[in-house]
Design brief:
By secondary structure, the protein is of the alpha+beta class. It folds into two domains: 3-173; 193-291, Rieske Iron-sulfur Protein, CATH 2.102.10. It is 49% helix and 17% strand. The strands form three sheets. The protein has a four-stranded antiparallel β-sheet.
């Protein structure tokens, strides 16, 4: 089967949509029930504090550990039996890492919709299956005369987790999940550019304007004008259609990420990357903006 056929087959599965409709709200409500503490936990799991998604970092632990286990198991079958304990330890390390990967991945998954949500759910189900196989393999390794079956299960688990990693890669590179959607080949203006007459921006309102070919969000709050990138860094939501909050921040209408209008920093996930922010001035009755700073690489 081609890549397109595999992906299309997954996205045509209605049961994935039904399951997603039931699971996703339950996870979101669980965080919301925790109030401010729940939001802080959610931000931590997204990687907001890191400025980078946390999930892909943690996934390196089980994949790396289980790859090591596969190599050591292979060598032990070739006569290097002293390596068997190392393989067993690698399996256990992978299982611990899989827990962290599952929790962070589930948190990120709550910020997806439609096709991405179906693919993400299948990605998670494959990982659950692989983890179950590795758990059984580890338990069998603790018993005598069961090592052959244990290795067989771990190799099967490695095949399943590899398929899951393929889907995970497509979600990032194909569906652009966990990609900074403010990154662009178009240059942000380094010199002041007129974007809107000052009289057209009322107090406690925000508008989308164009600084050259770059969409910018303008907002006036407490008599001060702010400007940040209009396209949400999480999944490209239009911030001008979101909510201007009393504390001088804006909430994305798509998945609820909250950004400071002052400097574009992330106040609440699922976004992890800040919005580029702009210096603002009013010249001859015209609001002008230019890029205030560049984002860290």
């Amino acid at each position: 089967m081609t890549q397109e056929t595999i992906l299309d087959t997954i996205t045509r599965q209605d049961w994935l949509g039904t399951a997603g409709d039931a699971i996703q709200p339950a996870v979101i409500q669980a965080f919301e029930a925790g109030g401010e503490a729940g939001q802080k936990i959610k931000n931590f799991l997204h990687g907001t504090w890191l400025g980078h998604p946390l999930h892909p970092i943690i996934t390196d632990v089980p994949i790396g550990a289980w790859t090591t286990a596969a190599v050591l198991d292979g060598l032990s079958l070739c006569g290097q039996r002293k390596l068997a304990p190392g393989a067993d330890a690698a399996i256990l390390i992978g299982l611990v890492g899989a827990v962290g990967a599952a929790i962070t991945g589930l948190t990120d998954w709550t910020g997806t919709t439609k096709k991405k949500r179906k693919l993400g759910l299948m990605h998670g189900l494959l990982n659950i299956g692989a983890t179950a196989l590795y758990t059984t393999s580890y338990l069998l390794r603790r018993q005598q005369n069961s090592r052959g079956a244990a290795i067989g299960l771990s190799l099967l688990g490695y095949g399943v987790v590899s398929a899951s990693a393929y889907l995970g890669g497509h979600l990032v590179y194909g569906e652009q999940v966990s990609v900074d959607h403010t990154a662009t080949s178009v240059e942000y203006p380094s010199e002041f550019v007129g974007v809107l007459p000052d009289v057209d921006l009322a107090e406690n309102t925000m508008q989308r304007v164009e600084a050259g070919s770059v969409p910018v969000l303008l907002a006036r709050k407490n008599g001060e004008i702010f400007a940040i990138a209009h396209t949400c860094s999480h999944l490209g939501g239009p911030l001008s259609e979101g909510t201007l909050l009393p504390d001088g921040s804006v909430r994305c209408p798509w998945h609820g990420s909250v950004f400071s209008l002052k400097d574009g920093c992330v106040l609440a996930g699922p976004a992890t990357e800040p919005q580029p922010s702009f210096e603002v001035r009013v010249q001859n009755g015209q609001i002008e903006v230019r890029l205030a700073h560049t984002k860290s690489a």
